[in-house]
Amino acid sequence: MDIADLVLEDHHRQRKSFALLDETDPANHARLAAIWGDLADFLEAHAAAEEAVLYPRVLELSDPDASETKDAIGDHNDIRDAITRATSEDVGSDGWWKAVGAARAANTEHMGEEEDEVLPHLRRRAAIAVRTDMGLAFEVAKTSARRAQLDTSDKAPDDYVVEHT
Ligand SMILES: [Fe+2]
Ligand SMILES: [Fe+2]
Known about the structure:
The chain is mainly alpha-helical. The chain has seven helices and no strands.
């Protein structure tokens, strides 16, 4: 399957999970915690799998000045930092909602940039067979067997580009 399609599917799942938080009774902290726990883990796995599988090939194939990649790594850091802030707050507290809202806003902006710039450029520059190979690797990287191998730490954008070019 084309990695560009698989990334879109992941983004839709993220939007749905934030919508589930909207629908949850704010007093039901156990339910909020359950939804947020899965969403936070998925956001981190998705970003780390993109960093492991997608962006090295974006640098090679469709982002010659590395601007899209550097911007994406910085966005991933912003999303991870908001997740970390949410994790330090009591679920359902004002501080928790603020951090979850920051993660949502950062993620929404970032998904738009991937969907409007990164993925269109990759579709034009990488053959479908290449995108299909990348798609399989992307899905395998997120399996429960491989999830622990993903690097979910923040990364300096300039260092990331140097390491992957
Ligand atoms: Fe991303
Ligand atoms: Fe993404």
